[in-house]
Amino acid sequence: MQLLPRSCNALRKAFKPRFFATHQPPPWRPGSAVDEWVERPIRPISLRQLTFFGRTLTEPRLISSANYVRTELPTRLAHRLRDIQQLPYVVVSNPRLTLVYELYYRAFERFRVIPEIRSLDDNEKFCDVLRDMLKEHLVVIPNLATGVLECRELFPPDDMDRFMNTLLRARISRRVIAEQHLALTETFNSPWHFPDSHERTDMNADFVGEVFLKCNAKEVIERCGKVAQDLMRKTSQSSNLQIPAVNVRGHLNATFPYILSHLEYIVGELMRNSVQAVMEKYQDSSEPPPPIEVLICETPQHVIMRLSDQGGGIPREILPYLWSFSKGPRTQTRLENLGRVPAMAATMQELKVNERKQELAGFHEGSLDSLTSRPPNLRLGMGLPMSRVYAEYWAGSLELHSLEGYGVDAFLQISKLGNKNEQVTTRAAIDAV
Predict the structure, then answer these.
(1) pLDDT of 200
(2) Domain count, the chain
(3) 429 in any annotated domain
(4) How many CB atoms lie within 10 A of CB 106?
(5) pTM for the whole thing?
(6) pLDDT surpasses 80 at 433
(7) pLDDT digits (tens, 9 = 90+) for 383-404
(8) Which residue from 355, 392, 350, 353 is spatially nearest to 372, judged by alpha carbons?
(9) In a designed cystine with 328, which of 29, 60, 66, 321 is the match (CB 3.0 to 4.6 A)?
């Protein structure tokens, strides 16, 4: 890798990319502060740790949580800043990737100077900063995805996919710890929370912060299936619309602790793909389309969901690039469609309150992209790779098996015990060379 130059005059003359006419090169700062934080190790957490810590919520514990987030966020940001700095300059000076770098650097500079949190007033001010940063970073995913596609000929695609996976997992990790602390703060400030009582009324709450203790696979599948069906119903112009049913069988009472918005994103993408594929294949048929069959299997350590459709399978030319963010035959279409996403991602999607969570817990708003609400013809080519990132984040897995001409089987495995640490890249190279 090449050390990032202070001046880009030579590169301007050599490459003359179109965006230099309207965009200035990224103002790279001295790396000493980043160097110091990159030397610090990332401290991963598990769903079980989040649950046990948040169950007994006292003022010292809340302040301890705030200080963990206060030091962990700049550490995690520093590692990812170093990853970006190690890219070739012609790649990272892409306007989209420059925007992402600038957002990360501003957040790093903001968080690293926050003093130790010692009181509830300090925590409230810290939470205000967290909320502002979460909203400011809503545009990261579409800009990151667009930048990666625009630079697909400037960097080996396999390396670009690894870079994209690393940054997406890191983004999830930062939002998890930030949103968990915001949720714990809201719980602590709620009128039904009694930190000094021995008979705690919130001990049996369904949520501990962002962690939903009773994720029921059947309920999530049926809810996401209905959303996918309703979306097709609203966007279709056909009067003879026939939407495939969703049949769920197996261990229907299987529950596990999980972050509900993560699971709904994964299942929502799979359901959307299956329903859309079946409808497209059977749109001219007078017979009802075959249903989406879902089988839930519960083992001592895992819950496995198999989603099977008869939508014709994945085209042979697409199959090798199924999990890639930067490769495939439809990159130009994906670029054009991504251009329509940023405004959506910053308004209706990431800011949309999860209605199910409001019913169960009352108040906290999550911030995961609900990209499944986009129109069916707006194909971004990132739903499946994004879903795999979310599935693997808590040590799960997502696999697809396609039988061309028939359909697809998707296998989603969830770690049932919640005792696996988040799967996040824990170390970046200290020297950006």
Answers:
(1) 43
(2) 2
(3) no
(4) 14
(5) 0.83
(6) no
(7) 889 899 999 999 999 999 999 9
(8) 350
(9) 321
